[in-house]
UniProtKB/TrEMBL annotation:
<dbReference type="GO" id="GO:0070971">
    <property type="term" value="C:endoplasmic reticulum exit site"/>
</dbReference>
<protein>
    <submittedName>
        <fullName>SEC31 homolog A, COPII coat complex component</fullName>
    </submittedName>
</protein>
<dbReference type="InterPro" id="IPR040251">
    <property type="entry name" value="SEC31-like"/>
</dbReference>
<keyword id="KW-0853">WD repeat</keyword>
<dbReference type="GO" id="GO:0090110">
    <property type="term" value="P:COPII-coated vesicle cargo loading"/>
</dbReference>
<keyword id="KW-0968">Cytoplasmic vesicle</keyword>
<dbReference type="GO" id="GO:0005789">
    <property type="term" value="C:endoplasmic reticulum membrane"/>
</dbReference>
<dbReference type="GO" id="GO:0005198">
    <property type="term" value="F:structural molecule activity"/>
</dbReference>
<keyword id="KW-0813">Transport</keyword>
<comment type="function">
    <text>Component of the coat protein complex II (COPII) which promotes the formation of transport vesicles from the endoplasmic reticulum (ER). The coat has two main functions, the physical deformation of the endoplasmic reticulum membrane into vesicles and the selection of cargo molecules.</text>
</comment>
<keyword id="KW-0472">Membrane</keyword>
<dbReference type="GO" id="GO:0030127">
    <property type="term" value="C:COPII vesicle coat"/>
</dbReference>
<dbReference type="GO" id="GO:0007029">
    <property type="term" value="P:endoplasmic reticulum organization"/>
</dbReference>
<keyword id="KW-0963">Cytoplasm</keyword>
<keyword id="KW-0677">Repeat</keyword>
Amino acid sequence: VTFENMKVLPQQGAEQQQQQQQRVFISQVVTEKEFLRRSDQLQQVVQSQGFINYCQKKIDGSQTEFEKNVWAFLKVNFEDDSRGKYLELLGYRKEDLGKKIALALNKVDGSDVCIKEEKQESEFLPLAGGTFNISVSGDIDGLITQALLTGNFESAVDLCLHDNRMADAIILAIAGGQELLARTQKKYFAKSQSKITRLITAVVMKNWREIVESCDLQNWREALAAVLTYANADEFSALCDLLGTRLENE
């Protein structure tokens, strides 16, 4: 019930003023009891900080897989090590990955591995206390040797890259300092072309925005996993927003 006072013009008569003094409005408000019940329940959860139990109940009562996943992600937000658990929800369990790697490494028979390792050690490693030749010839090896003997790591790295000896180049760049290593990494990635080169480049250069901006949206889970694993707290939200915007606009 609502009451309203009417404004009356001065020239109107007293009798007319009394007739138009007030109005009464009666309206019906429909209340959804279920909505109020759920609202009260949520307020109790907020006051008691019982978010994890509340989300778990929602997960248990979910009717669809989508609804279940939504509440599962919300629940993780209130748990310890939330990033690690987000990765698990995306399908990246560290334990499972460890088993896959161990399985791949153990595909070769153990005895064969031992034989091969012993053979490699005897072929390539110098004997303890033995002598070795320091070549200073005009070939690539000799030039690299001369560069190393004079402390010219940059030239040694350039020679290794020119000869496509990427591993040697990276190892020498590490010894030459962070600045040389960064330049060598860029040169390496410029020359290297593989299916995962861009991902490796982004991880090494810490360019997480490149992953989020340039990945195929079919791989949004993988992009989110990379952000969860590597991104700093101050850039995490912005990267997630960027990925979400790309998905919305698709």
